[in-house]
Amino acid sequence: MSSKYTDRLNLKFISSIITDLNNVTMSEAVLICDKDGHLITVSDNCTVADINTVTALVATATGVSRRIGLSLNFGDDMELILKGTKGMLLAKNITDELFIGVIAAKDANLAMINLQTKQAIAQLKDKVL
User: Fold this and answer.
1) Confidence tier at 18 by pLDDT (50, 70, 90)
2) Which pTM was predicted?
3) CB atoms near residue 91 (< 10 Å)
4) How far is CA 30 from the centre of its chain?
5) pLDDT tens digit sequence for 5-14
6) Closest CA to 124 of 4, 31, 27, 28
7) Strand ranges (DSSP E) for 3-121?
8) Which of 1, 18, 4 is nearest to 124 (CA)?
9) Neighbours of 99 (CB within 10 A)
10) The domain that contains 80 carries what CATH number?
């Protein structure tokens, strides 16, 4: 974890939030990364084989989605949902420079993941950032 944010963030608290989010949503992985694609932290039960590549892709996709949304005047609270036949990804911006990604099974409850992710972001903004 080589992000410039790791020194200033309370990683223990952040890890507890993503662990709780992971447990409630029964996700395969929850990660937080910076806008440059550096992994800040990931849930303990992560089953993703190449988390560093996934982290870079989450940062890129979230950044592009945010830019598209701003260009279309959708506001600045963007989220990206990618759903396939074998799984799904929900990615959201926490701040302009930090993103969260939730990787879940194809039949996971997307509404619950979205709700719980919003609550986790609010906790992160309130207590850490």
Assistant:
1) confident
2) 0.86
3) 26
4) 6
5) 555 567 777 8
6) 31
7) 29-34, 39-42, 79-83, 87-93, 98-105
8) 18
9) 28
10) 3.30.450.30
